[in-house]
Amino acid sequence: MYLIRHCEKELSGADPALTPEGRQRAADWAEMLQHVGLSAVITSDALRTLETGRIIAETLGLPTNALPRGDTAGLVDVLEFDHDEDAVLIVAHAETIPQILEGLGVLEDVNIDQNEFANLFVVIEPSSDAPVYVHLLMP
C-alpha cells in the first residue's frame, strides 16, 4: 500500500480544489509511481483528494474509487477484501493517514504538518503481524 496526502490546496472554501502547484505535484507523483505496479487509486470524497487521485490515475491508466473521508475501517475492509494482493495508492489527509497506517498494522506514531505535501508512506504486508513500513519524502 502506498499512501500520500492530497497535494497543495486552495486556502479558502469548504471543499477547496488543488492549486496549480498541487496539480503539478500530483503529476510528479504519477511520474514517480509509474513503475511500482499500482493497480488502483483510492481517495477520500474531498475535492482535493479526488483531484490528486484523478491526475495520477489518468496518467497511469488506473481505476479510482472514492470513500467517505472518515471511514478508515471501511477503507481497510476494501483493501483487505478487494485489493488483498494489489499495490494500491491511497490519497488521504494529514489527519487520516495516521489512522489508516494504524489500520494497516503500523504502530509507529505518525504526524503530518498541515504544510507538508511530500510524504510517501509505503506499507508492505499490511495487517500482518509485522508489516514493513517505509516513510519517504519526495524531493
Please, could you describe this protein's structure?
With 139 residues, this protein is of the alpha/beta class. It has one domain: Phosphoglycerate mutase-like (Rossmann fold, 3-Layer(aba) Sandwich), CATH 3.40.50.1240. 33% of the residues lie in helices and 24% in strands. It has four helices and six strands. It has a six-stranded mixed sheet with strand order 3-2-4-1-5-6, with helices on both faces. It is globular, with a radius of gyration of 14 Å. The mean pLDDT is 94.
End-to-end distance: 20 Å
CATH domain topology = Rossmann fold
Helix content: 25-40%
CATH architecture: 3-Layer(aba) Sandwich
Number of strands: 6
Low-confidence stretches: none
The domain tally reads: 1
Q: How would you characterize the largest beta sheet?
A: 6 strands, mixed
Mean pLDDT: 94
SSE string, helix = H, strand = E?
EHEHEHEHEE
As laid out across the biggest beta sheet, the strand order is 3-2-4-1-5-6
Please report which band the strand proportion falls in: under 5%, 5-15%, 15-25%, 25-35%, 35-45% or over 45%: 15-25%
Structural class based on helices, strands and sheet pairing: alpha/beta
Task: Using the coordinates above, name the CATH class.
Answer: Alpha Beta
The geometry reads as globular
| CATH superfamily caption | Phosphoglycerate mutase-like
Q: In angstroms, what is the radius of gyration?
A: 14 Å
Task: Note the total helix count.
Answer: 4
